[in-house]
Automatic annotation (TrEMBL), chain A:
UniProt keyword annotation of rRNA-binding present: no
Domain named ABC3 transporter permease C-terminal: residues: 254-366, 645-756
Organism of this sequence: Viridibacillus soli
Pfam family, one: FtsX
InterPro entries: ABC3_permease_C, Membrane_comp_ABC_pdt
Record membrane topology: Multi-pass membrane protein
Residues that span the membrane, as ranges: 21-41, 247-271, 300-321, 341-361, 417-439, 642-662, 695-724, 736-756
Domain of life of the source: Bacteria
PANTHER family xrefs: BLL1001 PROTEIN (PTHR30287:SF2), MEMBRANE COMPONENT OF PREDICTED ABC SUPERFAMILY METABOLITE UPTAKE TRANSPORTER (PTHR30287)
Designated name of the protein: FtsX-like permease family protein
Keywords: Cell membrane, Membrane, Transmembrane, Transmembrane helix
From TrEMBL, chain B:
Organism from which the protein derives: Viridibacillus soli
Coiled coil: none
Pfam families, sorted: ABC_tran
Domain ABC transporter span(s) in chain numbering: 5-244
Protein name: ABC transporter ATP-binding protein
Length: 772, 252
């Protein structure tokens, strides 16, 4: 019997059934996709890091190195499992020519390595340790993705020719957020080009117990070992690998949660309208003695069928799309060992959606208990009372067109009915605006100030060279004379010893200079301005256990110097552990200098960048836009894709839900429509009334959605962004696209949907609905 | 006397192709300006269908209906709506007032569509009509807060607001008790006395007896017509008797 009832019911309301099913399918698909992606991403990262045997602790170091002292330390420290020192030959991008094009515009520190002996292997795209022959070169996989190199391309370095034999995955430096990239060459070739660049050392350790990493770090620092360069630990490697795709998954999860919510609302009002339609039958069923649970079963069965069909379809669809979304993960990190788990998690996610729908329908159907059989049979409809807007009278209306007035009045009088549509529109606005704002924010120039980089036009890096201070002065002199430079700042990074509890000391890299010229965004406090102030990066503040206002003690040439923490900021550069201060110091060696400059005419950035590059070939000079593109490029593009997808999804949702809602409304209001027509209102009058209703609800929805997006949404997006290390931030809004364009697109969808949805109002025959 | 509606050989059928059933089987009717007519007949005889066909509310399958000299079947949906709004109006058995509006708003609604600027004047007129039918105190009430008789009076006020040439009533007293029904008929008589034509469809001999011409229908045809002098408040029983005799004669 159920089968027959369900079949009849579905064939009578094809559009509604289909729409509900589509929503369920999309919700199920997104939930299943995010489950699959999460499992795959974490699995792929784990697999990659396991296959490559990623170091647990890595200290980059340039300058002299005492390997004997380092191996002694490794032997003495019982937790060290393995230890090695790798060489990394840093070569200027301009000197690396791939297929005729140099990497001069590339902001990464490109360099060469040989395959490692013990761990930290460079892997090919099948996950195997690469065995490179003479004359061959393996290129970082990122350059395959962006089309810089292809297998078979010729690479020329220092006049020596190589052939690209393949691409490599580097568990340390895969991510664009890691600033260095390793090319792999054979031992012989490495020896041949060694004199061509600066050698940097990667001092690497693997520990027996990874959880002791903190203690090991402290021990390494207090031992006073080589530390002229960033220090990176296993968890940071993991995070760097996870960020880009992690962000995409976060966006998908956010959207899937919203779509599930919309699917619920969709079900709610189709169900309520159905109950309204069947009011008399329900009353009759109750009157002849059927139990509420029996009546519920009939309705529940239909939704169980829709939910099951939708979930199955969603699961199938997730298979179609997952390949596309997994592409990036697969390319950078390879397959996952637990892909079968992914399937199981996908199925669990889908089952969860199914059960949630059944539970929800069951909850909505509880209102059967409230239906009085006698009332239902007599009146055939629920005796809803018109509520609200009593003072909004037609007789007092001089301003609005009568049809518009009637539309608005109806919304105000039946608020609870329109609440569902309002909620859908609020959510749609939310879905459109949040990813857009997120995209605008991370692609805006100022976003890097959340990342520990000042917002300027041009960035000049002087590192891995001698006489850094002299070279900096040379550049400064040129900048001084250059009329097109409006301001600049020289920031010099040096390592100092900071005193920790129990008399331990830890190396801390401090960037000295005027931090007020190109300020970064401080999550707490402000930039250091006085000699005795210091600002710490979030990770450093966390590790040192310092808050704003605390005092930190440095040991400079044996003397203690107390500095007050003036602020904390987020940073992803140099392993996230940095500090900023203004005091002058002549004691410690300069590790590197960065000069930021701003141009009075922004259009000159490109020209200036190449001019300075030609002139100062010891420095790495990049336009900041380029720097952003290359550092966050893939992240920005995945968020960008997600934001466009979100707009499409939101518009489809708006269109379908409005259409559905209007069809319901017309069915519910048949009688009033017939009355209106008998009074001489034309079909276009009636359409105008419905358009006024939906536009009125839409405007309220957009206002609420925008407010919500800029408050709650910002908090949510902050949570996503904080995975970068940025702890607090404000949206950068592009009002033209975020508000005007979205508004227009939503109004168009709502109008189209309303006009199509209410077209059936024209067919309502007055005589049939009013005849006695 | 000028005719406002001329229905010529009207055919209206329901059902599918080969099982068509003519609800109106070649009916011809004329209604004069200011005339008070009624249509009687058993259920299913086609009397309501005739009213809807003559008012242009329903399309027809044969014949022709002219309203005020214009062929209704040649008019667009908009032109028909215009006529309904300005030249004719309806009173139904169930008071068809809109739930969201109060009594006053319901009454002024049809007239306000075109003349929003003169809303004050229209409201004034509505108040006068409400006073005439005795519901002045109800203007701000919700339609759920008044009785069926009061709703029907409001419905009549709404029908009169745009000064129509003719008012159609489909069993306007059908849902009322006899006292209310009598009061409503008094109002219809008054409206007619003011010069508006009225066409009522009814089962009730007492209602029909108020009118000056009664058409009797059976099986989609007008089978008989009874003319009475204009009702002057006298000899109601005699008029009802004449109607019932005619009904019996026709087997209704």
């Amino acid at each position: 019997m159920y089968f027959r009832i369900i079949r009849n019911d579905i064939s009578k309301s094809k559009l509604i059934t289909l729409t509900t099913m589509i929503f369920v399918a999309v919700a199920a698909m997104l939930v299943s996709l995010s489950a699959i992606l999460v499992v795959n991403l974490s699995g792929s990262i784990d697999t990659l890091m396991k296959q490559a045997k990623t170091p647990h602790f890595m200290q980059m170091h340039s300058g002299d190195i005492n390997t004997v002292r380092l191996s002694d330390f490794a032997e003495q420290y019982s937790n060290v499992d393995e230890f090695q020192v790798l060489e990394f030959l840093n070569v200027d991008g301009a000197q690396i020519v791939i297929d005729g094009n140099s990497l001069v515009d590339n902001v990464q520190d490109n360099g060469f390595s040989t395959q490692s002996g013990k761990f930290d292997y460079l892997l090919d795209l099948d996950g195997n340790v690469i065995n490179v022959s003479d004359g061959e070169i393996y290129v970082p996989v990122g350059y395959m993705k962006d089309g810089t190199a292809q297998v078979g391309d010729k690479v020329v370095i220092d006049g020596k020719k190589f052939t690209v034999a393949g691409f490599l995955r580097d568990s340390q430096m895969n991510s664009l957020l890691a600033s260095s990239k390793r090319f792999l060459v054979s031992e012989n070739d490495y020896a041949a080009i060694k004199g061509f660049g600066n050698t940097e050392y990667l001092i690497e350790f693997r520990l027996k117990d990874l959880s002791e990493i903190g203690a090991f770090e402290t021990a390494y620092t207090s031992a006073g070992l080589e530390a002229n360069g960033p220090t990176i630990t296993y968890p940071l490697f993991k995070m760097l690998n996870a960020i880009s795709d992690g962000l995409m998954i976060a966006v998908i999860l956010l959207i899937s949660a919203l779509v599930v919510a919309i699917a619920f609302m969709c079900i709610r009002f189709t169900l309520l309208a159905k109950i309204e339609e069947d009011y008399r039958e329900i009353g009759v069923m109750k009157a002849i003695g059927l139990r509420v649970s029996d009546i519920k079963k009939i309705y529940l069965a239909k939704y169980a069928v829709i939910a099951a069909a939708g979930c199955t379809l969603g699961f199938a669809l997730s298979f179609v799309f997952r390949g596309m979304l997994l592409e990036n993960i697969r390319l950078y990190m390879g397959g996952s060992e637990n892909s079968s788990f992914a399937l199981i998690f996908g199925i669990i996610g889908i089952l969860f959606v199914f059960l949630a729908i059944i539970a929800y329908v069951s909850k909505v159907l509880k209102r059967f208990r409230k239906i009085s059989a006698a009332e239902a049979i007599r009146f055939g409809t629920s005796q809803e009372k018109s509520a609200g807007a009593k003072h909004f009278c037609l007789s007092g209306n001089r301003l609005l067109n009568t049809n518009i007035f009637l539309g608005i009045k109806d919304v105000l009088a039946r608020k609870s009915l329109y609440a569902t549509m309002l909620a859908v529109l609020v959510i749609s606005t939310f879905i459109i605006i949040i990813p857009q704002n997120l995209y605008n924010t991370i692609s805006s120039k100022s976003f890097i100030t959340y990342m520990g980089i000042g917002s300027s036009d041009m960035r000049i890096d002087i590192q891995q060279t001698d006489n850094i201070s002299k070279k900096a002065v040379e550049i400064v002199k040129t900048l001084e004379r250059d009329n097109s430079i409006s301001k600049y700042a020289v920031l010099t990074t040096k390592t100092f010893k900071a005193k920790k509890e129990h008399g331990l000391e830890e190396g801390i890299k401090i960037e000295l200079g005027d931090h007020s010229i190109f300020p970064v965004e401080y999550s707490e406090g402000r930039a250091p301005v006085k000699e005795d102030e210091i600002a710490l990066s979030a990770i450093n503040a966390d590790e040192l256990g310092k808050k704003v206002g605390d005092v930190i003690t440095l040991v400079i040439e044996g003397k203690e110097k107390n500095l007050t923490v003036s602020g904390t900021y987020s940073d992803i550069t140099n392993g996230g552990k940095t500090a900023k201060a203004v005091f002058s110091d002549n004691s410690a060696d300069i590790m590197w200098s960065v000069i930021y400059a701003e141009l009075s005419d922004k259009s000159l950035v490109g020209g200036k960048t190449s001019e300075y590059s030609d002139r100062f070939n010891f420095a790495k000079i990049s336009g900041i836009d380029e720097y952003i593109t290359q550092t966050f490029g893939s992240t920005i593009s995945s968020v960008g894709k997600a934001s466009y997808a979100a707009i499409v999804v939101a518009l489809i949702i708006t269109l379908l839900v409005t259409l559905l809602f209007m069809k319901m409304l017309v069915a519910k209001d048949r009688y009033s429509i017939a009355v209106m027509k008998s009074l001489g209102f034309t079909n276009s009058d009636i359409t105008l009334q419905y358009v006024s209703r939906s536009v009125f609800v839409l405007i309220v929805g957009i206002v609420l959605g925008t407010l919500l997006a800029n408050t709650l949404g910002e908090v949510l997006a902050s949570a996503v962004i904080s995975s970068f290390g940025a702890s607090s931030f404000k949206f950068v809004v592009n009002p033209l696209s975020a508000y005007l364009l979205c508004l227009l697109m939503m109004i168009c969808s709502v109008l189209i949907a309303t006009i199509i949805g209410t077209s059936s109002a024209g067919q309502i025959k007055t005589s049939e609905n009013l005849k006695e | 006397m000028k005719k406002i509606i001329i229905g010529d050989n009207i055919v209206k059928s329901f059902g599918v192709d080969n099982e068509k059933h003519n609800v109106l089987d070649g009916v011809s009717v004329e209604i004069n300006e200011g005339e008070f007519v009624s249509v009687m007949g058993p259920s299913g005889s086609g009397k309501s269908t005739l009213m809807y066909a003559m008012s242009g509310m329903d399309g027809i399958d044969g014949g022709k209906v002219s309203f005020d000299g214009r062929d209704l079947s040649a008019l667009s949906e908009k032109e028909l709506a215009d006529i309904r709004r300005t030249k004719m109006s309806f009173v139904f058995q169930q008071p068809t007032l809109l739930k969201n509006l109060n009594i006053l708003d319901n009454i002024i609604l049809p007239s306000l569509r075109d003349n929003r600027k003169s809303a004050a004047k229209i409201t004034e007129k509505a108040r006068a009509l409400m006073k005439k039918v005795g519901i002045t105190e109800l203007e701000k009430r919700d339609i759920t807060q008044v009785s069926g008789g009061q709703l029907q009076r409001a419905g009549i006020c709404r029908a009169l607001i745009s000064n129509p040439k003719i008012i159609f009533g489909d069993e306007p007293t059908g849902a009322l008790n006899s006292k209310s029904a009598q009061e409503i008929m008094d109002i219809f008589s008054e409206i007619n006395a003011d010069g508006n034509a009225v066409m009522l469809v009814t089962h009730d001999a007492k209602v029909a007896a108020r009118t000056e011409r009664i058409m009797f229908m059976r099986d989609g045809k007008i089978v008989s017509e009874l003319k009475l002098p204009k009702f002057d408040g006298m000899d109601m029983d005699g008029r009802v008797e004449k109607v019932t005799v005619e009904m019996r004669k026709m087997g209704i």
